[in-house]
Amino acid sequence: EMSCICLGPKRAGKTHLLKALQEPDSIDETSYSMPTIGTGIYRIHFPTKSPNSDKPRPPPVDGAGANIPHGGKNLPKSIQILEIGGSMAPLWRQYFEDVKKLIYVVDTSNLCQISAAGVLFYSILTEPRLQKVKILLVLGKMDYSYRQMRNEALLMLQMSKLQKQIRQQVTIVEASAVTKVGLDTIYDWLQRP
User: Fold this and answer.
1) What is the pTM of this model?
2) Whole-angstrom Cα distance, residue 52 to residue 150?
3) Strand locations in the chain, DSSP E?
4) What does the radius of gyration of the chain's CA atoms come to, in whole angstroms?
């Protein structure tokens, strides 16, 4: 049951990010991911401790958690994410059935890629089958880019204009697979119903 998919242009950093979420210590400055040809499946286990408290979360009850509001209990222990290679963008729509959550990764250090990324993102947001989907826009590779790149990226993606036009709830997070910035926010977003 693939209710979460991860999309983004080629070399945006999808694989790196998913590997970091799966195994945070597996990614550092020297890590290299081959471009994904086709698709990849990642099972991501949520950290059992919330990062800003010393109390471990109560263990989730199996089977429950699907339709319980976000109250910290009965949350899923893990999620399976389908990554679809950027080179497969023309075929992405084949994977849109039954998607509940969509992660869209953009490489903020690569301004040339951002406007193309925006066009692709827009085509996703206007897709009829994705009107009720929760969307996480990941401004990736923040370790390589300057702070002002974030604003630059959002401008180039025309985010403020888009958010007025679209029905979906878009959460924006800055992340780096290398420095681990943003990973907690992503775990939290993934775990919420």
Assistant:
1) 0.85
2) 25
3) 4-7, 39-45, 78-84, 101-107, 134-140, 170-174
4) 16
Paired tokens of 133 = 């989907």
Average pLDDT over residues 173-187: 94
CB contact at 8 A, 178 and 28: yes
Cβ(118)–Cβ(157) under 8 Å? yes
What Å distances lie between residue 190 and 5, 109, 134, CA to CA?
Answer: 11, 24, 10
Q: In what order do the strands lie in the sheet with 170-174?
A: 39-45, 78-84, 4-7, 101-107, 134-140, 170-174
pLDDT for residue 1: 59
* First and final C-alpha spacing in the chain: 15
Q: How far is CA 178 from the centre of its chain?
A: 15
